[in-house]
What does this fold into?
Amino acid sequence: MKTAKIPSLLLLSLSLFSLSAVAADTLPAKDPVNTNQCFGCHASAIKTLSTRGAHKNVNCVTCHDIPKEHMSAPSKENRPTTHFEYAACGQCHTEQHKDIMDPKYHYEWALKNTPPTYAQFRDLTGDNSFRDVQFRLPRFHSSIVTDLANVRSDGRYQYKKYTDLSKPGAPLWEALTDTRPEEGDKIKPSKTLSLTWRPQKGREIMGRSDCLKCKTNDNMLDYAYLGKRDPKAPLAFDDPDHKVLKTVNNSFNCITCHDPHSAEPRIVFDHLIEAMSHKDFKDSNYQKNVGKTGYPKIEVIEMGVRGYPRKIAILDKANSNYMCGQCHQGHNRSETFYKDSDGSLAHEKNAIDRNGWSVGTYFAGNPLERWNLVRGLGLYNGIDKATGVKTVSTDHYHMETVVASKHGQAGVGCTDCHFSKKENGTLEHQPSLPTLKYKNTCARSDCHGNPNGDNWSEGQAAYMVATIQQRYRIHKERLERYGLAARDLLIKAKVGEVKIPDDQYKKLQDAYSLYLHTTGFYFSDYSKGVHDPSGFEETSSYVIKNLRTATAEAQKAVK
It folds into this structure.
């Protein structure tokens, strides 16, 4: 991707969230282009978006460096440079730029975090030992693509200055250096093991470049829809990691959630667009409720004149559950599905051109819905080595859990808890832990404060969260206890030590498979139950009872 000095910006109108802008006379002048000439080629989507919304008076040169040759004889070779930098938007949206680069909450968390917050769990699918995993480290969103490249490259991409780990991110290739360029486009194993911030994920090399899609949108113009291979598209979702990394420099761009042409709230992540619009999802939680509070409608727009399909979706109402959910969702895109009937693949090996429910998220509000969907279709994702049980994979189901919760159905979004409300009524653009700002999240007047009736103090909000998390830990301990009992019996049956009749054996296998899916589903919920307290307690109670019943019946029927 071309790089260029950040262009001077013209005065922007107020955006969706009434973002502040600096005065036009403080910005250096830049010759505007005749937008009607641009619309001669960009006559459909770009013209539609650019002539409505808060940015309708913003000239194309605000975000693009446009060669003169492109205006007279447009071609691929003289295509304008698009600016994706935070600072590009930040020249007008100064407060939001300041917020996202402000480390205050991260440093405050570090000062208070004694001892560190660890999750303890028993590795039932491994060696049955207890593991302590630090999983609440609040990462700088402004350097999230840098984090990924650094920790998942077996030491290939190193910080030029190690202490920059503790700062909001500089652009990727200003912060990191490639220590093994001779490896080319593929990252190879080395003596330095890769890490991961998320304990339920693999700890080795990235493996698939498609995970970069929700860390940056620098290269969003270079992909065809759903990352399909297209002779005209420079990138596909299964391209080698380094090939894709070379095309990016900025983490989690502003344009991930805000359309630059119209300033409307939007979704650009293909898999979520698929889930919200595809006919295969008509029975999903979202499509069944679309239009109700907490379930905004979308306008899917075909974009571009580059010769390959690209889509975005505009939300009719801003809802951060879906905007943040582009990354914080458990999509099926990279899952491998096998058929119950013969164990064969349910799709082509490494297929990147799947569509329908196996691409997006099904909006399952709890693991029982997700497990029933996959197993109901006669599919599974793998085999548990210890027990031989067919398993259903898990991911980070934050968005689905919140959307299906009472908060989500009432229209409460991620930013209501992770962004603090300022004195002027706007939300600060600083995604960080709610535990550091209860006064301006849970306890503020439009939530659980006055005049709602709860009249929570900051301390009461903190105590309520601590109580929910304690109940979560109790349920989790019981899940593990009964899961271990089922596991021991299944191992005995697998090695022939006991014989369980078919009906009771299948019931026990299904109960344990659902248990594995449930612990994976909720273990990847970093809130430890706060995202959906009642939903977690109802589901975990069902799974515990299911395990106890299936184990007892199998033990009674043992031959």
Q: What stands out?
A: The longest helix spans residues 458-494. The longest strand covers residues 298-303.
